[in-house]
User: What shape does this take?
Amino acid sequence: MTDTTLKNPPDDTTMQSAADLAQSAIASVKAKPTPRPFVQQYDECEAHGQYPLNMQDERGGERWYPGGCPVCRNQANAAKLLAASNIPKRFVDCDFSNYVATTEDQQRVLRRCEAYASDFAKYRDSGACLLLCGRPGTGKNHLATAISRHLLDRNARQTLPFRAGKDSADAAGVHCDG
Ligand SMILES: [Zn+2]
Assistant: This one.
């Protein structure tokens, strides 16, 4: 539009071309930019090797992962959660792999605890808990710690009360009677 057209009353032609201009301006704003081809990028962790920096979502958009090696990040998170847990220091190294199940009963209990840890989300949602009862020295604390660590290693964010003593089972969690 020139100064002349601004000073004169708009005729139909001017109105039409202004409408066309507006239309094409709106269309150009609405038009999607030509998508860049997705290029997968990687970085390298000295301990865990190559890991992806970005991914393509279901709409074809590019997403960037949070910084750093995902395995290192996971380990750091798990260590933070472990430090914040109530697991006594002498038990922190206990896991399923170093639980010695010599009797048939111990093997059965081990399998039960492993299943509880694997399906923890299901038990948590239903509010169920696992109560370990038995004589002193049978490995209750070991197994309770193993369950807790299994979940912590997977960065479980849910409340996981670790209780030694005769507490009532009031939430999904691991309770020992001694
Ligand atoms: Zn790493």
